Task: structure prediction
Amino acid sequence: MSHLSITNRQVPIHVDGRNYELECQLISPEKTDRDLIIFLHEGLGSVALWRDWPARLCEQANCRGLVYSRYGYGASTPRPPEEKWPLSYMHTQAEKALPALLNALEMTHERPILFGHSDGGSIALLYAAMYPDHPKAVTVAAPHIFVEDVTTTSIEQAREAYLNTDLPQRFSRYHQNPDSAFWGWNDIWLNPEFKFWNIEAYLPKIQCPVLAIQGKNDEYGTLAQIQGIERIVPQTELCIINDCRHSPHKDQPEILNKTIVTFIQKLNETSHNNP
Result:
């Protein structure tokens, strides 16, 4: 990978009467004439957990990038132990937190391409539904649009691993407060009321092109997730990746990058031909 300019910042935002700092990484910010990809991490993710994959994709796609850790994750403001995520936590991230971050970064004029993984994919879809004129496109990998038994089973297994293995120590490489990240995510997904969580009613509001990607061996969801997106959002392109589990950017990065780069190229060809 050739040298890319990367800037790391702590960005203050204000959401629902509270002040937070979000850890952000800006990739090639000087390329102001290029598309901006915003990376939304999984339920246990952070800027650090992406490693260098966002930079590699931005280099291949000749794009800028914005990578950030949500509240409670990475080097962002941690979640107090007594605070539980509400059932609507992903809705709040889409409706309020991401717009607040873009405002703080003076990026409200942008028409970004969103890339969301897992929970981040769900947030990306919600954002595109709530602000249909804003994103240029949405790319999601292993998103959730409803809760499946296979998802909660894997999350229960993650809970056992966190309690009985060195997982907290390993998480400390990626989160300043591993408990903040893990229990915020684990407690809400295993809340009995969360099994009724469903965002399908939002999806018809999405107007931009959608690329929905999933590994054939995803341990956190079935292909019904991305097939459901395609059923409801007709401008959806599907990509099912063989020999791939829940994280295509880790299991099959070459296939994933090629798929996304081709999708962006087609987007720009279409916009060029239809100004």
Observations:
- Residues 253-273 form the longest helix (21 residues).
